[in-house]
Amino acid sequence: MPLSLGVSVGDRIEVGDSIVKVKAIKNHKLIIVSVNGGPDISVNDNNADAVEILPDVRLFTGLDRDGARSRLAFDAPRSIKITRIEPPQS
To answer: What number of CA atoms fall less than 13 Å from residue 6's CA on the CB side?
Structure first.
C-alpha cells in the first residue's frame, strides 16, 4: 500500500538518501517534482502510469478525503525511509 502525503509547493520529502521537492501543483491530477535538484518530473493521478523517480520508488498523485489538498503517493518497499522535511521554524 503506498504512503500518501499531503503536499504544498515548496515541500521537501526525504526518500532514502534523496530529496524530492514539490515545485508546482498544476491541479490535483498533475504535480511537478524534482529529485535532488534534477530536472522537473510530471506526476499524474494514474497509479498504472506511476513515475519511477528512484529505483523501486514510484510516485503518483491524489486528493485527501475532502478534496481540498493535493497528495503524493509513494509506492516503495518499507525498507526505504520516506519522511517529510519540516521547514525551519521562524
So the answer is: 6
What is the per-residue pLDDT across 26-71, written as a single tens digit (0 to 9) for each? 887 899 999 999 999 999 887 778 899 999 999 999 766 666 678 9
pTM of the model: 0.88
Beta bridge partners of 63: 70
Map grid coordinates 498544476 to a residue: 26
CA pair distance 44, 24, nearest whole angstrom: 12
Domains of the chain: which residue ranges? Answer: 3-85
d(CA 42, CA 18): 17
CA 59: distance to chain centroid?
6
